[in-house]
Design brief:
homodimer; 444 residues; alpha/beta; FAD/NAD(P)-binding domain; Enolase-like, domain 1; 3 domains; 5-stranded parallel beta sheet; 12 helices; 25% helix
Chain lengths: 444, 444
């Protein structure tokens, strides 16, 4: 009998590894256990399912269990791993459908248990109309709940990407939506001056945005805050996620400051023959060199691929994250990469920043929309540290050029000199990112 | 009396330098001479003026002579410099409006005389209905000519960016349009396999595209080719441009293999106190290290800025070009940067390439359009050499991430690992550029 690879978790980080391993090691036995009902899906598509832009939950599934079985990967849904014995190379598995538990041995183990929504420690946080949304199963429950009652008033607690995307989705569905954020500005992944532009877009869409307001309790009809009660027949948690790393830590694997599983460049955990990837892991930030926790599908896919190559005898490394993220909320595009001004200062950089307003295309073209770009750089060296973008159609993906520049260790002067594409429908002759880079030069 | 800077040419390369010099050297006298009627305009916008997407020629003007005069830059239009004496520091100037000639002394000289459309050496090439389009004055003549006659049949000779953009503009105006290209495929700045996708888009729009066909003569009613006559009451030259460098070469300045003025990293010509920038210069290609001729507004602006900083006591360098270019023709977006597969081989690289089909956004989103990406890399080292993109909305500007990666000397493996922005409206979880990079890895 050949070796067996056990994969825990059937979404991106698990199945990208399984697929790589399958391709490279044809005789390897691969078993993938997923506690939910779906494999390889786009959790990022859930808000579009909620808004109706995407019609069927199946549209979000990239590969079904059947697809994987056709690749000779033994995928079992509704199978939850409840314990790991790394010495004995054995997992304790609970078959949820048949409510029975069994043991499964493995030679190699890949942990891709993902993340779970952060739940506030509040009275009422576990009421059935309070939804954290991370998996397709979560989204089924949310949409079933919203569908069976005519939801009229939705409150989103927190203002992360998914929370704001769902806030908009429920506006599209005809609900009255409130967003409450404990910090002074929405979207804490941006500097407050850029977050303010997002708040304005939300308010223009009719969303009641309350910043500096903390939820104190949730009842069946309200969210209670120091600034008064907010009527809510549906509550969405938009507080971000935390690593679902308990299985690994209980088995003795090391975790980092963010409670994510510690992995090296090859996605190897602290135990021999055990890999991990995706939302259950911590990562290293390319710019700061610090460990960070970034739970995003792109990272999960890349880490899964790297783990799969390494566990099947190849060699690949994951270079770290830049915290690149893009989204669109209320017709406003948002992008960020690298360090914000606040993050740069906390990481020990003497940072300078510029913020400029420009247009996404030549001003005389119908494709032209407003765009605001903030560039952060290290003083004296001119090293590029990060960028944030808020603007109209054509704005967000411009952070990619900064992401590439960060990975190439370019300076802002280099960014000014970059030979970027220009044509009237796509850009002014100086790309807005370069206009922002130029504006930071005098401060160096 | 203080020093005088004479700028020859009132478009991007000239006026970007003048504006920088003005800001940094307040007491410098700056005289800028422009033989045409316009300053600082977007020549790239001309096709949109022709199609009617842009309504007024003035919309394409970024800064008027009056704007510059308000900055204390003495701009004179209809003033053509007809001779230069670099020893005597004196220019011979022809005032076209009053038909008189005078001499003007200078301490520093900046040559930004631009480019002129390549004209084929054919019988009839100088007939009045044969238009090369490079300046706003050219476009006035073209539109006046097209307006006073009801142009029904347009033939474009050559298939460069501007030629194809104008071909589409005349389709929009209701004309029957033919494009003839002597090479085996349209758009020679792409590899033929990518150019074929552009040809398909043109044909789908009803443009009669004939490749491998050379114009032999132009008459008042036809373009004559070996493959038969093509009726044409308007002929557009889409053969690209050549440097308008005669003034500099007659004054003894050195030129390179592309007949562009030779400049160093600071945009200094071979003569002391004489700078040059923009379409009249040659550049250095960042990837190949070879001298190249690239006539584009972005390059002109960047080189003008660098020249202006240096001539006013600062220090800046132009890092070279990647040949990045983007356009949109017949709803199809086109982008390229770095070396094509053909160029890489000619430059002495052992090059490998991949070409993949993907979508611009998550496949389940309404924003999703087809996109084809070709990535070129150096064998063994995996060094990224270039990329080409043809696809629907959201395709072209993706070359920018490759442009940044090229300037950062990244490998295709680095490109695969880049932390690029992902959200369903903007990208699949693996950006198409990364899918193409992954596809090239096995060939290294």
């Amino acid at each position: 009998m050949g070796e067996r690879l056990l994969v825990i978790g059937g979404d991106a980080a698990g199945m990208a590894a399984a697929a790589q391993a399958r391709r490279r090691a044809p005789t390897l036995e691969i078993v993938a256990l997923e506690k939910g009902n779906w494999t390889s899906y786009s959790a990022c598509g859930i808000p579009y399912l909620a808004s109706g832009a995407v019609h069927e939950i199946e549209d979000l599934v990239v590969r079904t269990p059947e697809d994987f079985r056709a690749m000779h990967i033994d995928v079992r849904t509704q199978h939850e791993v409840v314990g790991l014995d790394l010495e004995a190379r054995r997992a304790e598995v609970h078959n949820l459908a048949h409510d029975r538990t069994f043991h499964l041995g493995f030679d190699m183990l890949h942990i891709a248990t993902g993340a779970r929504p952060r739940r506030p420690d509040l009275p009422g946080a576990d009421l059935p109309h309070v939804h954290g949304v991370q998996t397709l199963d979560d989204s089924s429950r949310l949409l079933a709940d919203a569908g069976k009652r005519r939801v009229k008033r939705v409150t989103v607690i927190g203002s992360g990407y998914v929370g704001l995307e769902l806030a908009e989705a429920f506006v599209v569905r005809g609900a009255t939506v409130t967003v409450i954020e404990a910090r002074p500005e929405v979207m804490g992944s941006l500097d407050p001056d850029m977050g303010a532009l997002v708040a304005r877009a939300l308010r223009n869409r009719g969303i009641d945005v309350r910043v500096g307001v903390r939820a104190e309790a949730i009842t069946e009809t309200h969210v209670r805050t120091a600034a008064g009660d907010i009527a809510a027949d549906l509550v969405i948690l938009g507080l971000g996620v935390e690593p679902n790393s308990g299985l690994g830590t209980e088995a003795g694997l090391q975790t980092g400051v963010h409670e994510g599983l510690e992995v090296d460049r090859q996605q190897r955990t602290s135990a021999d023959g055990v890999w991990a990837a995706g939302d259950c892991c911590q990562s290293v930030h390319v710019v700061s060199g610090h460990p960070v926790y970034v739970a995003l599908g792109t990272v999960a896919n890349k880490q899964g691929r790297v783990a799969g190559i390494n566990m099947s005898g190849g060699y690949a490394t994951f270079p770290g994250v830049l915290g690149t993220a893009v989204t669109r909320v209320c017709q406003t595009e948002i992008g960020r990469t690298g360090l914000t001004e606040d993050e740069a200062k906390r990481a020990g950089f003497s940072a300078v920043a510029s913020r400029i307003d420009a247009t996404t295309a030549a001003g005389y073209m119908p494709e032209s929309h407003p765009i605001t770009v903030k560039v952060v750089a290290e003083r004296r060296s001119g090293r590029l540290l990060g960028a944030q973008i808020v603007g109209g159609h054509g704005s967000a993906k411009r952070v990619d050029v900064v992401a590439a520049a960060l990975s190439g260790h370019l300076t802002v002067e280099d960014l000014v000199g970059l030979d970027l594409g220009y044509a009237p429908p796509f850009s002014p002759v100086w790309d807005p990112v370069q206009v922002a880079a130029r504006a930071v030069l005098p401060q160096l």
